[in-house]
Design brief:
The complex is a heterodimer.
Chain A: H1 2-27, E1 50-52, H2 68-72, E2 78-84, E3 91-99, H3 108-112, E4 118-120, E5 135-137, H4 138-143
Antiparallel strand pairs in A: 1-4, 2-3, 3-5
Chain B: H1 4-40, H2 56-65, H3 77-92, H4 112-120, H5 122-133, H6 137-168, H7 173-179, H8 185-188, H9 190-203, H10 215-218, H11 228-253, H12 265-288, H13 296-331
Helix pairs in contact in B: 1-2, 1-11, 1-12, 3-5, 3-11, 5-6, 6-9, 6-13, 9-11, 9-13, 11-12
Classes of the chains: A alpha+beta, B mainly alpha.
Protein backbone atom coordinates (compact mmCIF):
# COMPACT_ATOMS: atom_id res chain seq x y z
CA UNK A 1 0.00 0.00 0.00
CA UNK A 2 2.82 2.39 0.78
CA UNK A 3 4.21 1.59 -2.67
CA UNK A 4 0.97 2.92 -4.14
CA UNK A 5 1.47 6.33 -2.58
CA UNK A 6 5.23 6.55 -3.16
CA UNK A 7 4.62 5.71 -6.84
CA UNK A 8 2.05 8.47 -6.99
CA UNK A 9 4.34 10.96 -5.27
CA UNK A 10 7.45 10.27 -7.32
CA UNK A 11 5.42 9.95 -10.51
CA UNK A 12 3.75 13.31 -10.03
CA UNK A 13 7.07 14.89 -9.08
CA UNK A 14 8.86 13.61 -12.17
CA UNK A 15 5.97 14.75 -14.39
CA UNK A 16 6.27 18.25 -12.94
CA UNK A 17 10.04 18.19 -13.52
CA UNK A 18 9.42 17.18 -17.13
CA UNK A 19 7.02 20.08 -17.58
CA UNK A 20 9.65 22.43 -16.16
CA UNK A 21 12.25 21.13 -18.61
CA UNK A 22 10.05 21.75 -21.63
CA UNK A 23 8.98 25.14 -20.29
CA UNK A 24 12.62 26.20 -20.01
CA UNK A 25 13.28 24.97 -23.53
CA UNK A 26 10.21 26.91 -24.68
CA UNK A 27 11.57 30.16 -23.24
CA UNK A 28 15.02 29.80 -24.76
CA UNK A 29 15.74 31.13 -28.26
CA UNK A 30 15.57 28.87 -31.28
CA UNK A 31 18.82 27.57 -32.72
CA UNK A 32 17.70 27.12 -36.33
CA UNK A 33 19.56 28.93 -39.11
CA UNK A 34 17.11 29.84 -41.88
CA UNK A 35 19.29 28.34 -44.54
CA UNK A 36 18.69 30.02 -47.88
CA UNK A 37 18.47 33.43 -46.18
CA UNK A 38 21.03 32.93 -43.43
CA UNK A 39 24.21 30.94 -43.67
CA UNK A 40 26.75 29.83 -41.14
CA UNK A 41 30.50 30.05 -41.70
CA UNK A 42 31.73 26.69 -42.82
CA UNK A 43 35.06 25.22 -41.79
CA UNK A 44 37.93 25.78 -44.28
CA UNK A 45 38.70 22.06 -44.01
CA UNK A 46 35.54 21.15 -45.90
CA UNK A 47 36.11 18.95 -48.93
CA UNK A 48 34.15 20.77 -51.59
CA UNK A 49 34.69 20.15 -55.30
CA UNK A 50 38.19 20.49 -56.75
CA UNK A 51 39.66 23.65 -58.19
CA UNK A 52 43.02 24.64 -59.68
CA UNK A 53 44.94 26.88 -57.30
CA UNK A 54 45.78 30.30 -58.72
CA UNK A 55 49.37 31.32 -58.23
CA UNK A 56 49.46 34.96 -57.06
CA UNK A 57 52.84 35.63 -58.72
CA UNK A 58 52.12 34.38 -62.18
CA UNK A 59 48.39 34.98 -62.12
CA UNK A 60 47.64 31.52 -63.46
CA UNK A 61 47.65 27.90 -62.30
CA UNK A 62 50.83 26.05 -61.37
CA UNK A 63 49.96 22.73 -62.98
CA UNK A 64 52.86 21.08 -64.79
CA UNK A 65 50.58 18.61 -66.59
CA UNK A 66 52.29 15.58 -65.10
CA UNK A 67 48.95 13.74 -65.10
CA UNK A 68 49.46 12.05 -61.75
CA UNK A 69 46.10 13.23 -60.48
CA UNK A 70 44.32 11.62 -63.41
CA UNK A 71 46.23 8.37 -62.93
CA UNK A 72 45.71 8.32 -59.16
CA UNK A 73 41.97 9.00 -59.33
CA UNK A 74 40.07 5.80 -58.35
CA UNK A 75 36.95 6.77 -60.30
CA UNK A 76 38.71 8.36 -63.24
CA UNK A 77 36.91 11.64 -63.04
CA UNK A 78 39.84 13.83 -64.09
CA UNK A 79 40.79 14.20 -67.74
CA UNK A 80 43.57 16.52 -68.77
CA UNK A 81 45.22 17.29 -72.05
CA UNK A 82 48.56 18.96 -72.55
CA UNK A 83 50.77 19.89 -75.46
CA UNK A 84 54.51 20.09 -75.55
CA UNK A 85 55.89 23.58 -75.00
CA UNK A 86 57.28 25.16 -78.16
CA UNK A 87 60.42 26.28 -76.39
CA UNK A 88 62.14 24.55 -73.53
CA UNK A 89 61.05 21.64 -71.43
CA UNK A 90 57.64 20.71 -70.09
CA UNK A 91 54.07 20.81 -71.28
CA UNK A 92 51.32 23.39 -71.46
CA UNK A 93 47.95 22.47 -70.02
CA UNK A 94 45.22 22.96 -72.61
CA UNK A 95 42.29 21.21 -70.97
CA UNK A 96 41.46 20.10 -67.44
CA UNK A 97 38.05 18.39 -67.16
CA UNK A 98 36.64 17.27 -63.86
CA UNK A 99 33.49 15.14 -63.58
CA UNK A 100 32.03 15.89 -60.14
CA UNK A 101 29.23 13.34 -60.53
CA UNK A 102 31.82 10.56 -60.23
CA UNK A 103 34.19 12.19 -57.74
CA UNK A 104 34.14 10.69 -54.25
CA UNK A 105 36.23 13.51 -52.76
CA UNK A 106 38.84 11.01 -51.57
CA UNK A 107 41.66 13.51 -51.97
CA UNK A 108 44.18 11.25 -53.72
CA UNK A 109 44.72 13.84 -56.46
CA UNK A 110 45.32 16.60 -53.92
CA UNK A 111 47.81 14.45 -52.02
CA UNK A 112 49.70 13.31 -55.07
CA UNK A 113 50.09 16.68 -56.78
CA UNK A 114 53.80 17.68 -56.66
CA UNK A 115 53.06 21.39 -57.11
CA UNK A 116 49.96 21.65 -54.89
CA UNK A 117 48.22 22.90 -57.99
CA UNK A 118 44.89 21.33 -57.12
CA UNK A 119 42.87 21.66 -53.91
CA UNK A 120 39.43 21.27 -52.40
CA UNK A 121 37.21 24.34 -52.60
CA UNK A 122 34.57 25.48 -50.09
CA UNK A 123 31.69 25.13 -52.53
CA UNK A 124 28.93 23.03 -50.98
CA UNK A 125 25.82 24.38 -52.70
CA UNK A 126 25.75 22.20 -55.78
CA UNK A 127 22.25 21.74 -57.08
CA UNK A 128 21.14 21.41 -60.66
CA UNK A 129 18.54 19.77 -62.84
CA UNK A 130 21.18 18.89 -65.41
CA UNK A 131 23.95 16.36 -64.95
CA UNK A 132 26.26 18.19 -67.32
CA UNK A 133 26.37 21.16 -64.94
CA UNK A 134 28.73 19.07 -62.83
CA UNK A 135 31.25 18.56 -65.59
CA UNK A 136 33.61 21.37 -64.71
CA UNK A 137 36.30 22.81 -66.91
CA UNK A 138 38.79 23.82 -64.25
CA UNK A 139 41.28 25.42 -66.63
CA UNK A 140 38.71 27.91 -67.90
CA UNK A 141 37.77 28.76 -64.34
CA UNK A 142 41.30 29.54 -63.23
CA UNK A 143 42.01 31.65 -66.28
CA UNK A 144 38.91 33.76 -65.81
CA UNK B 1 -46.06 29.13 -36.40
CA UNK B 2 -44.83 32.69 -35.86
CA UNK B 3 -43.28 31.76 -32.54
CA UNK B 4 -41.30 29.00 -34.22
CA UNK B 5 -39.47 31.23 -36.72
CA UNK B 6 -37.10 32.95 -34.26
CA UNK B 7 -36.35 29.60 -32.61
CA UNK B 8 -35.51 27.95 -35.93
CA UNK B 9 -33.50 30.98 -37.04
CA UNK B 10 -31.59 30.94 -33.79
CA UNK B 11 -30.86 27.22 -34.14
CA UNK B 12 -29.71 27.63 -37.76
CA UNK B 13 -27.45 30.58 -37.03
CA UNK B 14 -26.08 28.76 -34.07
CA UNK B 15 -25.37 25.56 -36.00
CA UNK B 16 -23.55 27.44 -38.77
CA UNK B 17 -21.55 29.59 -36.37
CA UNK B 18 -20.58 26.61 -34.25
CA UNK B 19 -19.47 24.43 -37.16
CA UNK B 20 -17.49 27.36 -38.59
CA UNK B 21 -16.02 27.91 -35.15
CA UNK B 22 -15.03 24.25 -34.95
CA UNK B 23 -13.08 24.53 -38.21
CA UNK B 24 -11.44 27.85 -37.33
CA UNK B 25 -10.55 26.49 -33.91
CA UNK B 26 -8.84 23.51 -35.57
CA UNK B 27 -6.89 25.90 -37.82
CA UNK B 28 -5.76 28.12 -34.97
CA UNK B 29 -4.94 25.23 -32.66
CA UNK B 30 -3.17 23.33 -35.41
CA UNK B 31 -0.96 26.35 -36.01
CA UNK B 32 -0.35 27.02 -32.30
CA UNK B 33 0.36 23.36 -31.66
CA UNK B 34 3.01 23.23 -34.36
CA UNK B 35 4.53 26.51 -33.22
CA UNK B 36 4.65 25.47 -29.56
CA UNK B 37 6.03 22.05 -30.41
CA UNK B 38 8.70 23.78 -32.43
CA UNK B 39 9.55 26.24 -29.65
CA UNK B 40 9.86 23.40 -27.14
CA UNK B 41 12.22 21.64 -29.53
CA UNK B 42 14.01 24.96 -30.14
CA UNK B 43 13.12 25.30 -33.80
CA UNK B 44 10.97 28.02 -35.39
CA UNK B 45 8.16 25.82 -36.76
CA UNK B 46 6.28 26.71 -39.96
CA UNK B 47 7.87 29.83 -41.42
CA UNK B 48 7.43 29.73 -45.19
CA UNK B 49 3.75 30.29 -46.05
CA UNK B 50 2.75 33.81 -45.03
CA UNK B 51 4.43 35.85 -42.30
CA UNK B 52 5.63 33.46 -39.58
CA UNK B 53 3.87 30.67 -41.45
CA UNK B 54 0.36 31.71 -40.37
CA UNK B 55 -1.13 30.53 -43.66
CA UNK B 56 0.45 27.10 -43.38
CA UNK B 57 -2.68 25.44 -42.01
CA UNK B 58 -4.86 27.05 -44.71
CA UNK B 59 -2.60 25.57 -47.35
CA UNK B 60 -2.63 22.23 -45.57
CA UNK B 61 -6.42 22.37 -45.49
CA UNK B 62 -6.62 23.02 -49.23
CA UNK B 63 -4.23 20.15 -49.88
CA UNK B 64 -6.22 17.76 -47.73
CA UNK B 65 -9.55 18.74 -49.36
CA UNK B 66 -8.00 18.00 -52.73
CA UNK B 67 -7.08 14.48 -51.68
CA UNK B 68 -9.05 11.41 -52.57
CA UNK B 69 -11.03 9.61 -49.89
CA UNK B 70 -9.90 6.04 -50.42
CA UNK B 71 -12.42 3.45 -49.32
CA UNK B 72 -11.05 -0.06 -48.79
CA UNK B 73 -12.52 -2.65 -51.15
CA UNK B 74 -14.27 -4.78 -48.54
CA UNK B 75 -15.20 -1.90 -46.25
CA UNK B 76 -18.77 -1.05 -45.34
CA UNK B 77 -19.02 1.99 -47.62
CA UNK B 78 -21.95 3.97 -46.21
CA UNK B 79 -20.87 3.46 -42.60
CA UNK B 80 -17.29 4.22 -43.51
CA UNK B 81 -18.35 7.57 -44.98
CA UNK B 82 -20.77 8.27 -42.16
CA UNK B 83 -18.34 7.82 -39.27
CA UNK B 84 -16.28 11.03 -39.73
CA UNK B 85 -19.48 13.06 -40.03
CA UNK B 86 -20.87 11.44 -36.91
CA UNK B 87 -17.66 12.22 -35.06
CA UNK B 88 -18.53 15.86 -35.54
CA UNK B 89 -22.04 15.73 -34.06
CA UNK B 90 -21.10 15.04 -30.42
CA UNK B 91 -18.70 17.96 -30.46
CA UNK B 92 -20.98 20.52 -32.04
CA UNK B 93 -24.17 19.70 -30.11
CA UNK B 94 -22.81 20.38 -26.58
CA UNK B 95 -21.91 23.91 -27.64
CA UNK B 96 -25.64 24.65 -27.32
CA UNK B 97 -25.29 24.89 -23.56
CA UNK B 98 -21.78 26.36 -23.29
CA UNK B 99 -22.15 29.84 -21.77
CA UNK B 100 -19.66 32.02 -23.61
CA UNK B 101 -20.92 35.01 -21.64
CA UNK B 102 -24.02 35.94 -19.69
CA UNK B 103 -26.00 36.42 -22.91
CA UNK B 104 -24.01 34.50 -25.50
CA UNK B 105 -25.52 31.09 -25.13
CA UNK B 106 -27.85 29.24 -27.47
CA UNK B 107 -30.00 27.79 -24.73
CA UNK B 108 -29.58 27.25 -21.02
CA UNK B 109 -31.04 23.88 -20.12
CA UNK B 110 -31.59 23.11 -16.47
CA UNK B 111 -29.83 19.80 -17.20
CA UNK B 112 -27.11 21.34 -19.37
CA UNK B 113 -24.18 19.54 -17.79
CA UNK B 114 -25.94 16.20 -18.06
CA UNK B 115 -26.80 16.98 -21.71
CA UNK B 116 -23.10 17.52 -22.52
CA UNK B 117 -22.05 14.30 -20.81
CA UNK B 118 -24.76 12.37 -22.64
CA UNK B 119 -23.98 13.74 -26.08
CA UNK B 120 -20.25 13.39 -25.58
CA UNK B 121 -20.60 9.64 -25.16
CA UNK B 122 -21.76 9.37 -28.80
CA UNK B 123 -18.06 9.75 -29.51
CA UNK B 124 -17.56 6.14 -28.47
CA UNK B 125 -20.15 5.03 -31.03
CA UNK B 126 -18.29 6.93 -33.76
CA UNK B 127 -15.07 5.16 -32.91
CA UNK B 128 -16.73 1.76 -33.04
CA UNK B 129 -18.37 2.56 -36.39
CA UNK B 130 -15.10 3.84 -37.86
CA UNK B 131 -13.14 0.83 -36.64
CA UNK B 132 -15.75 -1.74 -37.63
CA UNK B 133 -16.56 -0.37 -41.09
CA UNK B 134 -12.90 -0.18 -42.09
CA UNK B 135 -12.82 -3.99 -42.31
CA UNK B 136 -9.28 -4.00 -40.99
CA UNK B 137 -8.30 -5.91 -37.89
CA UNK B 138 -5.92 -3.21 -36.72
CA UNK B 139 -8.62 -0.57 -37.02
CA UNK B 140 -10.98 -2.78 -35.05
CA UNK B 141 -8.38 -3.41 -32.34
CA UNK B 142 -7.69 0.32 -32.25
CA UNK B 143 -11.38 1.04 -31.92
CA UNK B 144 -11.67 -1.47 -29.05
CA UNK B 145 -8.75 0.17 -27.28
CA UNK B 146 -10.19 3.64 -27.72
CA UNK B 147 -13.60 2.54 -26.51
CA UNK B 148 -12.12 0.92 -23.41
CA UNK B 149 -10.12 4.08 -22.81
CA UNK B 150 -13.05 6.46 -23.29
CA UNK B 151 -15.40 4.43 -21.13
CA UNK B 152 -12.96 3.99 -18.26
CA UNK B 153 -12.00 7.65 -18.24
CA UNK B 154 -15.61 8.77 -18.39
CA UNK B 155 -16.09 7.55 -14.81
CA UNK B 156 -13.59 9.95 -13.16
CA UNK B 157 -14.91 12.76 -15.37
CA UNK B 158 -18.44 12.15 -14.15
CA UNK B 159 -17.38 11.77 -10.52
CA UNK B 160 -15.49 15.06 -10.53
CA UNK B 161 -18.34 16.83 -12.32
CA UNK B 162 -20.66 15.45 -9.67
CA UNK B 163 -18.65 17.21 -6.93
CA UNK B 164 -19.46 20.55 -8.52
CA UNK B 165 -23.09 19.58 -9.07
CA UNK B 166 -23.30 18.67 -5.37
CA UNK B 167 -21.89 22.04 -4.36
CA UNK B 168 -24.06 24.18 -6.61
CA UNK B 169 -27.18 22.02 -6.56
CA UNK B 170 -27.74 22.64 -10.26
CA UNK B 171 -26.83 21.14 -13.63
CA UNK B 172 -27.40 24.40 -15.48
CA UNK B 173 -24.16 25.73 -16.92
CA UNK B 174 -25.20 29.34 -16.40
CA UNK B 175 -26.17 28.54 -12.82
CA UNK B 176 -22.78 26.97 -12.11
CA UNK B 177 -20.98 30.02 -13.52
CA UNK B 178 -23.10 32.36 -11.44
CA UNK B 179 -22.36 30.31 -8.32
CA UNK B 180 -18.68 31.20 -8.79
CA UNK B 181 -19.32 34.91 -8.41
CA UNK B 182 -17.08 35.25 -5.36
CA UNK B 183 -14.67 32.33 -5.53
CA UNK B 184 -13.71 29.99 -8.37
CA UNK B 185 -14.32 26.32 -7.65
CA UNK B 186 -10.73 25.42 -8.50
CA UNK B 187 -9.80 26.83 -5.08
CA UNK B 188 -12.42 24.72 -3.30
CA UNK B 189 -12.05 21.58 -5.45
CA UNK B 190 -8.43 21.47 -6.68
CA UNK B 191 -8.37 17.66 -6.74
CA UNK B 192 -11.57 17.46 -8.75
CA UNK B 193 -10.03 19.88 -11.25
CA UNK B 194 -6.82 17.86 -11.59
CA UNK B 195 -8.74 14.60 -11.96
CA UNK B 196 -11.11 16.17 -14.48
CA UNK B 197 -8.26 17.62 -16.50
CA UNK B 198 -6.28 14.37 -16.65
CA UNK B 199 -9.35 12.34 -17.54
CA UNK B 200 -10.28 15.02 -20.08
CA UNK B 201 -6.92 14.54 -21.74
CA UNK B 202 -7.71 10.86 -22.08
CA UNK B 203 -11.26 11.55 -23.28
CA UNK B 204 -9.95 13.69 -26.14
CA UNK B 205 -7.32 11.07 -27.02
CA UNK B 206 -4.56 13.55 -26.35
CA UNK B 207 -1.04 12.70 -25.40
CA UNK B 208 0.03 11.00 -23.13
CA UNK B 209 -3.11 8.95 -23.78
CA UNK B 210 -3.10 9.18 -27.57
CA UNK B 211 -2.94 5.51 -28.43
CA UNK B 212 -4.84 5.98 -31.73
CA UNK B 213 -1.92 8.07 -32.93
CA UNK B 214 0.67 5.42 -32.13
CA UNK B 215 1.24 4.64 -35.75
CA UNK B 216 4.52 2.80 -35.52
CA UNK B 217 3.69 0.72 -32.45
CA UNK B 218 -0.02 -0.04 -32.80
CA UNK B 219 -0.74 0.66 -36.49
CA UNK B 220 -2.56 3.81 -35.36
CA UNK B 221 -6.14 3.28 -34.23
CA UNK B 222 -9.69 3.42 -35.54
CA UNK B 223 -8.76 5.93 -38.27
CA UNK B 224 -6.01 3.85 -39.92
CA UNK B 225 -7.94 3.42 -43.16
CA UNK B 226 -9.08 7.01 -43.45
CA UNK B 227 -7.41 9.38 -45.85
CA UNK B 228 -7.98 12.90 -47.10
CA UNK B 229 -10.88 14.81 -45.66
CA UNK B 230 -12.31 11.85 -43.73
CA UNK B 231 -9.16 11.74 -41.67
CA UNK B 232 -9.00 15.50 -41.23
CA UNK B 233 -12.61 15.54 -40.01
CA UNK B 234 -11.50 13.25 -37.17
CA UNK B 235 -8.65 15.64 -36.42
CA UNK B 236 -10.91 18.70 -36.52
CA UNK B 237 -13.32 16.89 -34.22
CA UNK B 238 -10.42 16.15 -31.88
CA UNK B 239 -9.55 19.82 -31.62
CA UNK B 240 -13.21 20.76 -31.17
CA UNK B 241 -13.36 18.09 -28.47
CA UNK B 242 -10.36 19.67 -26.78
CA UNK B 243 -12.16 22.99 -26.86
CA UNK B 244 -15.25 21.38 -25.37
CA UNK B 245 -13.37 19.65 -22.53
CA UNK B 246 -11.50 22.87 -21.72
CA UNK B 247 -14.64 24.98 -21.82
CA UNK B 248 -16.40 22.60 -19.42
CA UNK B 249 -13.35 22.85 -17.15
CA UNK B 250 -13.59 26.63 -17.40
CA UNK B 251 -17.28 26.65 -16.57
CA UNK B 252 -16.96 24.21 -13.68
CA UNK B 253 -13.69 25.28 -12.09
CA UNK B 254 -12.36 28.55 -13.49
CA UNK B 255 -15.37 30.78 -13.09
CA UNK B 256 -16.62 30.73 -16.70
CA UNK B 257 -16.99 34.26 -18.02
CA UNK B 258 -16.19 35.91 -14.68
CA UNK B 259 -13.31 38.37 -14.79
CA UNK B 260 -12.55 42.06 -14.69
CA UNK B 261 -15.58 44.01 -15.80
CA UNK B 262 -15.39 45.17 -19.40
CA UNK B 263 -17.94 47.43 -21.12
CA UNK B 264 -21.04 45.51 -22.30
CA UNK B 265 -20.07 42.72 -19.92
CA UNK B 266 -23.11 40.59 -20.83
CA UNK B 267 -21.33 39.94 -24.13
CA UNK B 268 -17.65 40.78 -23.55
CA UNK B 269 -17.46 38.21 -20.78
CA UNK B 270 -16.78 35.88 -23.71
CA UNK B 271 -13.31 37.39 -23.83
CA UNK B 272 -12.45 36.04 -20.38
CA UNK B 273 -14.13 32.75 -21.16
CA UNK B 274 -12.15 32.23 -24.37
CA UNK B 275 -8.91 33.34 -22.71
CA UNK B 276 -9.30 30.74 -19.97
CA UNK B 277 -10.26 28.03 -22.46
CA UNK B 278 -7.29 28.72 -24.71
CA UNK B 279 -4.88 28.83 -21.77
CA UNK B 280 -6.10 25.36 -20.78
CA UNK B 281 -5.76 24.16 -24.35
CA UNK B 282 -2.20 25.46 -24.53
CA UNK B 283 -1.46 23.56 -21.32
CA UNK B 284 -2.75 20.45 -23.10
CA UNK B 285 -0.38 21.16 -25.98
CA UNK B 286 2.46 21.70 -23.52
CA UNK B 287 1.69 18.34 -21.91
CA UNK B 288 1.61 16.65 -25.29
CA UNK B 289 5.11 17.82 -26.17
CA UNK B 290 6.53 16.87 -22.77
CA UNK B 291 5.40 13.36 -21.95
CA UNK B 292 5.88 10.05 -23.70
CA UNK B 293 2.86 7.89 -24.49
CA UNK B 294 1.60 5.43 -21.87
CA UNK B 295 1.23 1.73 -22.52
CA UNK B 296 -2.32 0.41 -22.73
CA UNK B 297 -2.24 -1.44 -19.39
CA UNK B 298 -0.74 1.63 -17.73
CA UNK B 299 -3.53 3.68 -19.24
CA UNK B 300 -6.30 1.53 -17.78
CA UNK B 301 -4.46 1.08 -14.46
CA UNK B 302 -4.14 4.81 -14.17
CA UNK B 303 -7.86 5.28 -14.52
CA UNK B 304 -9.07 2.39 -12.35
CA UNK B 305 -6.39 2.38 -9.67
CA UNK B 306 -5.68 6.07 -9.28
CA UNK B 307 -8.24 8.44 -10.77
CA UNK B 308 -11.44 6.59 -9.83
CA UNK B 309 -10.53 5.87 -6.16
CA UNK B 310 -9.33 9.41 -5.68
CA UNK B 311 -12.39 10.94 -7.30
CA UNK B 312 -14.65 8.70 -5.20
CA UNK B 313 -12.90 9.83 -2.01
CA UNK B 314 -13.12 13.41 -3.20
CA UNK B 315 -16.84 13.03 -3.86
CA UNK B 316 -17.45 11.52 -0.41
CA UNK B 317 -15.45 14.29 1.26
CA UNK B 318 -17.38 16.90 -0.72
CA UNK B 319 -20.70 15.42 0.37
CA UNK B 320 -19.62 15.32 4.01
CA UNK B 321 -18.16 18.83 3.75
CA UNK B 322 -21.36 20.26 2.35
CA UNK B 323 -23.43 18.60 5.07
CA UNK B 324 -21.09 19.90 7.81
CA UNK B 325 -21.02 23.37 6.27
CA UNK B 326 -24.81 23.52 6.05
CA UNK B 327 -25.37 22.33 9.61
CA UNK B 328 -22.74 24.79 10.94
CA UNK B 329 -24.45 27.58 9.03
CA UNK B 330 -27.80 26.40 10.40
CA UNK B 331 -26.47 26.61 13.96
CA UNK B 332 -25.22 30.15 13.41
Amino acid sequence: MSRYFTDLYYGAKSLMLGMAVTFKAFCRPTVTVHYPRQKIDITPNIRGRLFLVKDEDTGTHCCISCGRCARECPTGCIHLKAVKKEEGKGKDLVQYEYDYTRCSLCGSCVDVCPKNAIDFSNAYELVSFDKTDFHFNLLEEVEK
Amino acid sequence: MHELIPIIARALVYAIVMIAFGFVNALVMGYLERKIAAKIQRRPGPMEVGPYGILQLVVDGIKIIGKQLIIPKEADGPLFRFAPLLSFAPVVLPFIVIPFSKELQAKDFSLGLLFIVTIASINVLTIVIAGWSSNNKYSLFGAMRSVAQNISFEVPVLLSILCIALMTGTYSMQGIVQAQDTVWFILIQPFAFIIYFIAGLAETNRNPFDLPEAESELTAGYHTEYSGFGFSLFMIAEYANMFLVCSIATVLFLGGWHGFKLPFFEYTGAFWFLTKVYVLMLVMVWIRWTFPRVRFDQLLNFSWKYLIPFSLVNLALTAVGIKVFESVRGMI
